[in-house]
């Protein structure tokens, strides 16, 4: 304790990092189970120490303490007793400290509900913070604190955040919905309202999260999707990857309830015709449409079309979800476009391979054609993990057909020799399946398997026996040789399953091997007591069957075996023996049953069907957890069957707001920063057609042209003071236009602005800005207008909505974008040129002395010494009028600020050796000095 | 969706846990550890395990298990992909993904995990965005932080998070503007014992390192884009442009990223750059055997084959080897039964050879089967498919960037059956 606190005192600014590491190391090797009393007490001391640090006034110490606490949490140690000390810091100004306190709160609030309430007011305050990041993180933490008392507060916060200006905060509110729902399902109805609202949100940021909330809270409210269906389809490519997965899976479910089946009416899948189909994909599509009266709902097509590009995503989950969408929704002949992408995923991590192979296994059962061209991608490598190997084997077996079976069998031969015996055994089963499925190769396979019977490895032999048994059962007539061979093997094989299989086989077909069978029984009688149970049971079976067919030779043997069985330790065997004895040995008690003994024991038995374990897996939606584990996971949402009749399609119609056609240059008032809105389109789809469509001009006025950075300028209106000045036209209109919105940022919408220096039409104290909008995308842009938001002190006369910005393509799209832009005028553009006499000039100048005057001496370049170029230079720089001057070497210019009408006087006095003195007189001294700076630059350069 | 994350080291200790919803006791990992015990190799642990109340989805990477706990239905790939992103993020921040590094930076890792998921749903996984929120550690910064008490946590919402191009930071500035592209191709092949190609294909990836100021809009075109059969892109690439013109048009993320991966058209025959002459015999009497390996260049397009490394997984009964290599050196790990022969550069005049005897466990039967060889190799300045970058154009910015393209061919899963 003491040592800890001395240690503590040395923790000044420098020591932090080191000691954290020390302590980290100290605690890592301890396993929690082995924590004895000693360890516990040091923990206890350390916490005391942390408490002290937290109560210290130094921020660095607090931060240090919080870091160590979070370290403890990360290791799974209990730090809950520090709660009171930590919670005090929740209002800290230090961002990192605050974040760490949040982490702590979320972890322990559930355990310390009363204390947690102390922090709530801080979050409520933060929810109103102007910084969106702070608002969002406050909501995140508030909703993560699992304290039931604050449910109403959470509800309120969620509702408010759902209509926040920032899409990031709205996204957070979508997450909060799920948290609140899991805390209190009774809030469902209210939450659905919020979900409904957020579903209408047009931001790509929100879409994924709100659909996630929808899936968790009210997946059954499919009606909420109707109006948003097209929007979601169109937004899809631009949503972040994780959102894409969720949206696609939701839309799959939706589509299954809303559209009719695109699959052919006969429904049942016909393998042969289907295969032919793939070879001529294109033609078939055309045929199809001719034959079938089915027409696909355009919305159904929209979904298929808009998800297709996502097959190229780098995110494997996205690719898989598109693949399952096509599998469950696309017409049969279109599904195969997903093949290539799925095969590509096999290059990814082991775990990805595992899931993808499982899904391919399910698909390949129904649709061999899809994966057959990629058969070689499923070849097994010796370095694959065992579960990957068996999945590949499964798929290869599914893909086998008459044409490729020889290749596959050759490949299987290699696998059988694998060092991984489990895999070798799996291969043998696969060979068995191929043999039953493809009758042409049954014999070849059987012979191959018989060869394997002499393999040195027991597992391989045993597996072969089992598989041969199954194969022979299918067609026993021709194979007495093999049965004989297997009878011989009985001496060497020790694997019980294999021995049992051989015995069963001999019993079943004892009439085909009349000589050998009794001999085998004799051998088994000898070893009966030392056999495994399963072998004993089969020996009893064999005895019974032989007794029925060949009682002369085997009667005694049978009785001997039945006697042994009667006293066996295993009750199953005793039971079976008793049953068999009653059945086959007639006596007075046995009654009617023994008459049927032969028919019971030697009934023809159907051959086992060797089929894939993945046969019926497609009852689960592909790509889901349920599909992987082959049981219904909690929260699994069933995919419904196609409806026989499509529900009303019009529910998805969205009222289209008629765009106002407005071609005249639109109007400006006090213009400045303009968030332009455009409905435009996917980032992926811009192509380079350029077309100038529409010009709008706005005017802006400013009183003191100091351009404040992000907000552009602050402008205000003043009443123009009366003066001996009259406004003249500009001497010069600069051609140069500036970028307002780059076409990349604007997603195809480019905007440029230029100052026309014309007096504004709307109000004399505004500055005209001409804005040119260019649509460089191949989509229609509609309803471009200036958003309502304008910084304080600034008036913008907005132009009306520009109807449409045309280009040739007509993809309809309803996405809305908002861009914040700012116009940064050169100070010179904020003046209006005025004319006045030299005399007036001097008079005005006299009034504007002292602090209203600024001047500088510069060296002008040679060509600027004559009056013409000099006038041009000055006029280019600022909108000022030339004042006739009596002196050759003195040039005078005059203007006034547009917004306040303050007079501005510029005097350029040329001296010898190309020196010049610029003097500016104006009461707006800031603008004056800014203009002076610009003029200096302009005149000094060539 | 994702409930909790546990990081488990190879010996089965849980050294980090993070919960995004209510806390799940770490005893849930017992089911996983049990499966881990059962599996012979960590690779063999099934990625999805279902337990009575939870589902465990895990990945094995860099000798660590990332184990996530799931309670309800979720696409397993969603979780797997996310876990890999976590591993990549750690790698990206700290240079490597290992237990030591994570333990040393546990607070930062924890903060990152906090930002990456909200309520189990991914929030920010783009490295450019994360790096704006939590700055990666550098020596300079940690010194400054200690002195000034400032932190690595950013206080503004990253601009990328809100824009339509979330992968790029705003306001990027470099004095030297440069863009490098590495075209890396890997040959996946299986050769049978006679040297015939059973299966071969080329997988390629274009890795980019772009350090350009502002908002550059790049267009990368290939001389022979028809070679590319199947492609996947970083989200920045405009798919429509690719569909119509076969050019890659994109606004790049800042820094390193994978621009695209591709698969080369299957119709093209794949050039196999090396051949292996091999013979392995085990004596009938048991007790021993002989091994003779020679590696030589085949279709190398006139380039040198470097970094040749042959790995042989010997049968379990091989006790020790006594070999002689004419070039390079070999090691034999008796525990894993892996023989590694590091050859280095391949000299066509003097082919490297490895021969000698193998000794088997006494009494063990002669191994049934022959092992297979895995080959690693590298060829600089060559894309084996013949893919060539035509040009890189930049729009949207005025400066002239420095551009560079590099080609490398490597062996992917290149296996020779003996």
Automatic annotation (TrEMBL), chain A:
<dbReference type="GO" id="GO:0030665">
    <property type="term" value="C:clathrin-coated vesicle membrane"/>
</dbReference>
<protein>
    <recommendedName>
        <fullName>AP-3 complex subunit beta</fullName>
    </recommendedName>
</protein>
<dbReference type="Pfam" id="PF01602">
    <property type="entry name" value="Adaptin_N"/>
</dbReference>
<dbReference type="InterPro" id="IPR011989">
    <property type="entry name" value="ARM-like"/>
</dbReference>
<keyword id="KW-0472">Membrane</keyword>
<dbReference type="InterPro" id="IPR015151">
    <property type="entry name" value="B-adaptin_app_sub_C"/>
</dbReference>
<keyword id="KW-0333">Golgi apparatus</keyword>
<keyword id="KW-0813">Transport</keyword>
<dbReference type="GO" id="GO:0006886">
    <property type="term" value="P:intracellular protein transport"/>
</dbReference>
<dbReference type="Pfam" id="PF14796">
    <property type="entry name" value="AP3B1_C"/>
</dbReference>
<dbReference type="InterPro" id="IPR002553">
    <property type="entry name" value="Clathrin/coatomer_adapt-like_N"/>
</dbReference>
<dbReference type="GO" id="GO:0005794">
    <property type="term" value="C:Golgi apparatus"/>
</dbReference>
<dbReference type="InterPro" id="IPR029390">
    <property type="entry name" value="AP3B_C"/>
</dbReference>
<dbReference type="InterPro" id="IPR026740">
    <property type="entry name" value="AP3_beta"/>
</dbReference>
<keyword id="KW-0968">Cytoplasmic vesicle</keyword>
<keyword id="KW-0653">Protein transport</keyword>
<dbReference type="Pfam" id="PF24080">
    <property type="entry name" value="AP3B1_C_2"/>
</dbReference>
<feature type="domain" description="AP-3 complex subunit beta C-terminal">
    <location>
        <begin position="700"/>
        <end position="824"/>
    </location>
</feature>
<dbReference type="GO" id="GO:0030123">
    <property type="term" value="C:AP-3 adaptor complex"/>
</dbReference>
<dbReference type="GO" id="GO:0016192">
    <property type="term" value="P:vesicle-mediated transport"/>
</dbReference>
<feature type="domain" description="Beta-adaptin appendage C-terminal subdomain">
    <location>
        <begin position="832"/>
        <end position="940"/>
    </location>
</feature>
<keyword id="KW-0597">Phosphoprotein</keyword>
<dbReference type="GO" id="GO:0030131">
    <property type="term" value="C:clathrin adaptor complex"/>
</dbReference>
<feature type="compositionally biased region" description="Low complexity">
    <location>
        <begin position="697"/>
        <end position="707"/>
    </location>
</feature>
<comment type="similarity">
    <text>Belongs to the adaptor complexes large subunit family.</text>
</comment>
<dbReference type="InterPro" id="IPR016024">
    <property type="entry name" value="ARM-type_fold"/>
</dbReference>
<feature type="region of interest" description="Disordered">
    <location>
        <begin position="665"/>
        <end position="707"/>
    </location>
</feature>
<comment type="function">
    <text>Subunit of non-clathrin- and clathrin-associated adaptor protein complex 3 (AP-3) that plays a role in protein sorting in the late-Golgi/trans-Golgi network (TGN) and/or endosomes. The AP complexes mediate both the recruitment of clathrin to membranes and the recognition of sorting signals within the cytosolic tails of transmembrane cargo molecules. AP-3 appears to be involved in the sorting of a subset of transmembrane proteins targeted to lysosomes and lysosome-related organelles.</text>
</comment>
<dbReference type="InterPro" id="IPR026739">
    <property type="entry name" value="AP_beta"/>
</dbReference>
<dbReference type="InterPro" id="IPR056314">
    <property type="entry name" value="AP3B1/2_C"/>
</dbReference>
């Amino acid at each position: 304790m003491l040592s800890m606190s001395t240690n503590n005192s040395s923790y000044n600014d420098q020591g932090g990092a080191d000691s954290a590491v020390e302590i980290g190391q100290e605690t890592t090797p301890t396993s929690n189970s082995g924590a004895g009393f000693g360890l516990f007490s040091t923990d206890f001391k350390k916490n005391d120490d942390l408490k002290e640090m937290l109560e210290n006034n130094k921020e660095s110490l607090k931060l240090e303490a919080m870091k160590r606490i979070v370290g403890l949490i990360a290791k799974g140690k209990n730090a809950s007793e520090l709660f009171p000390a930590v919670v005090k810091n929740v209002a800290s100004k230090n961002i990192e400290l605050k974040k760490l306190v949040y982490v702590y709160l979320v972890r322990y609030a559930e355990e310390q509900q009363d204390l947690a309430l102390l922090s709530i007011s801080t979050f409520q305050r933060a929810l109103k913070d102007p910084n969106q990041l702070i608002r969002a993180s406050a909501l995140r933490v508030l909703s993560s604190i699992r304290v039931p008392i604050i449910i109403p507060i959470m509800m309120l916060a969620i509702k408010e955040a759902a209509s926040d200006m920032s899409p990031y905060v709205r996204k957070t509110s979508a997450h909060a919905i799920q948290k609140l729902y899991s805390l209190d399902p009774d809030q469902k109805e209210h939450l659905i309202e919020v979900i409904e609202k957020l579903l209408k949100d047009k931001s790509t940021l929100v879409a994924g999260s709100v659909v996630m909330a929808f899936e968790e809270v009210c997946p059954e409210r499919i009606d909420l999707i109707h109006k948003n269906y097209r929007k979601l389809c169109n937004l899809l490519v631009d949503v972040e990857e994780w959102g894409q997965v969720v949206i696609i899976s939701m839309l799959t479910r939706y589509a299954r309830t809303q559209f009719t089946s695109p699959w052919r009416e006969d429904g049942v899948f016909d393998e042969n015709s289907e295969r032919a189909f793939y070879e001529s994909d294109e033609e078939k599509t055309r045929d199809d449409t001719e034959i079938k009266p089915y027409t696909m709902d355009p919305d159904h097509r929209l979904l298929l079309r808009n998800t297709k590009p996502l097959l190229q995503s780098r995110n494997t989950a996205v690719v898989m979800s598109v693949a399952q969408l096509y599998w469950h929704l696309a017409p049969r002949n279109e599904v195969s476009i997903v093949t290539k992408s799925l095969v590509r995923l096999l290059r990814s991590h082991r775990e990805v391979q595992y899931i993808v192979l499982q899904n391919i296994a399910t698909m390949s059962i129904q649709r061999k054609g899809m994966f057959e061209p990629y058969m070689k991608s499923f070849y097994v490598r010796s370095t694959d993990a065992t579960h990957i190997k068996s999945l590949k084997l499964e798929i290869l077996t599914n893909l086998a057909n008459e044409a490729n079976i020889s290749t596959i069998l050759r490949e299987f031969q290699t696998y059988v020799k694998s060092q991984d015996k489990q895999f070798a055994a799996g291969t043998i089963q696969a060979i068995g399946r191929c043999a039953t499925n493809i009758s042409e190769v049954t014999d070849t396979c059987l012979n191959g398997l018989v060869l394997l019977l002499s393999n040195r490895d027991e597992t391989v032999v045993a597996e072969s026996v089992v598989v041969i048994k199954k194969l022979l059962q299918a067609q026993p007539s021709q194979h007495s040789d093999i049965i004989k061979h297997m009878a011989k093997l009985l001496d060497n094989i020790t694997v019980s399953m294999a021995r049992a299989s051989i015995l069963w086989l001999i019993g079943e077909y004892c009439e085909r091997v009349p000589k050998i069978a009794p001999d085998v029984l004799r051998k088994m009688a000898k070893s009966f007591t030392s056999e495994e149970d399963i072998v004993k049971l089969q020996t009893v079976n064999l005895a019974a069957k032989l007794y029925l067919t060949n009682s002369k030779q085997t009667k005694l043997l049978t009785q001997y075996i039945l006697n042994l069985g009667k006293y066996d330790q295993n009750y199953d065997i005793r039971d079976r023996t008793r049953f068999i004895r009653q059945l086959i040995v007639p006596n007075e008690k046995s009654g009617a049953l023994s008459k049927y003994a032969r028919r019971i024991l030697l009934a023809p038995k159907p051959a086992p069907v060797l089929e894939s374990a993945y046969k019926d897996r497609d009852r689960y939606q592909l790509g889901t957890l349920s599909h992987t584990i082959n049981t219904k996971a909690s929260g699994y949402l069933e995919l419904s069957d196609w409806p026989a009749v499509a529900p009303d399609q019009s529910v998805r119609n969205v009222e289209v707001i008629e765009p106002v056609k407005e071609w005249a240059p639109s109007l400006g008032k006090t213009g400045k920063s303009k968030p332009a809105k455009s409905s435009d389109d996917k980032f992926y789809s811009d192509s380079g057609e350029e077309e100038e469509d529409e010009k709008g001009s706005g005017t802006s006025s400013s009183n003191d042209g100091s351009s404040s950075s992000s907000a552009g300028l602050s402008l205000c209106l003043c009443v123009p003071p009366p003066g001996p000045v009259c406004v003249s036209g500009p001497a010069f209109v600069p051609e140069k236009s500036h970028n307002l919105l780059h076409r990349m940022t604007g997603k195809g919408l480019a905007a440029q602005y230029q100052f026309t220096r014309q007096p504004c039409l709307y109000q004399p104290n505004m500055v005209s800005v001409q804005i040119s909008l260019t649509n460089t995308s191949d989509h229609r842009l509609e309803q471009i207008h200036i958003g309502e938001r304008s910084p304080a002190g600034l008036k913008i006369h907005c132009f009306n909505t520009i109807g449409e910005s045309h280009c040739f393509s007509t993809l309809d799209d309803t996405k809305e974008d908002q861009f914040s832009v700012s116009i940064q005028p050169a100070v010179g553009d904020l003046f209006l040129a005025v004319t006045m006499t030299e005399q007036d000039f001097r008079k005005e100048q006299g009034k504007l002395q002292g602090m209203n005057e600024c001047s500088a001496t510069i060296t002008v370049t040679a060509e600027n010494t004559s009056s013409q170029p000099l006038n041009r230079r000055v006029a280019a720089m600022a909108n000022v009028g030339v004042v006739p001057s009596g002196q050759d070497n003195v040039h005078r210019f005059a203007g006034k600020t547009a917004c306040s009408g303050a007079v501005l006087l510029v005097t350029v006095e040329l001296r010898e050796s190309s020196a010049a003195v610029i003097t500016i007189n104006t009461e707006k001294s800031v603008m004056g000095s800014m203009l002076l700076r610009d003029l200096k630059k302009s005149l000094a350069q060539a | 969706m994702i409930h909790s994350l546990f990081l488990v080291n190879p010996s089965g200790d849980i050294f980090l846990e993070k919960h995004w919803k209510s806390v799940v006791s770490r005893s849930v990992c017992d089911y996983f550890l049990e499966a881990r015990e059962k599996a012979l190799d960590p690779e063999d642990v099934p990625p999805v395990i279902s337990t009575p109340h939870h589902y465990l989805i895990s990945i094995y990477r860099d000798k660590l298990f990332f184990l996530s706990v799931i309670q309800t239905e979720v696409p397993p790939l969603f979780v797997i992909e996310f876990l890999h992103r976590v591993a990549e993020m750690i790698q990206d921040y700290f240079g490597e993904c290992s237990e030591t590094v994570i333990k040393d930076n546990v607070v930062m890792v924890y903060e990152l995990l906090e930002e990456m998921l909200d309520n189990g749903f991914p929030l920010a996984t783009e490295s450019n965005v994360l790096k704006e929120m939590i700055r990666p550690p550098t020596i300079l910064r940690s010194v400054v932080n200690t002195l000034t008490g400032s932190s690595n946590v950013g206080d503004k919402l990253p601009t990328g998070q809100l824009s339509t191009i979330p992968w790029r930071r705003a306001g990027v500035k470099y004095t030297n503007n440069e863009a490098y592209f590495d075209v890396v191709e890997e040959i996946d092949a299986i050769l049978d014992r006679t040297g015939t190609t059973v299966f071969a294909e080329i997988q390629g990836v274009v890795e980019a390192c772009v350090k350009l100021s502002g908002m550059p809009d790049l267009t990368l075109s290939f001389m022979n884009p028809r070679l590319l059969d199947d492609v996947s892109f970083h989200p920045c690439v405009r798919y429509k442009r690719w569909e119509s013109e076969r050019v890659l048009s994109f606004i790049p993320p800042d820094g390193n990223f994978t621009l695209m991966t591709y698969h080369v058209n299957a119709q093209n025959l794949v050039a196999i750059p090396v051949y292996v002459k091999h013979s392995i015999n085990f004596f009938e009497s048991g007790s021993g055997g002989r091994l003779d390996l020679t590696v030589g260049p085949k279709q190398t397009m006139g380039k040198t084959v470097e970094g040749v490394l042959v790995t042989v997984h010997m049968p379990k009964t091989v006790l020790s080897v006594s070999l002689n290599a004419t070039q390079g050196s070999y090691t034999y790990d008796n525990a894993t039964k892996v023989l590694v022969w590091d050859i280095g550069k391949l000299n066509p005049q003097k082919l490297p050879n490895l021969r000698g005897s193998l000794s088997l466990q006494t009494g063990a039967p002669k191994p049934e089967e022959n092992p297979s060889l895995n080959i690693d190799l590298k060829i600089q300045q060559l894309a084996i498919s013949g893919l060539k970058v035509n040009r890189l154009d930049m729009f949207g910015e005025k400066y002239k960037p420095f551009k560079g393209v590099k080609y490398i061919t490597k062996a992917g899963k290149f296996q020779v059956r003996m």
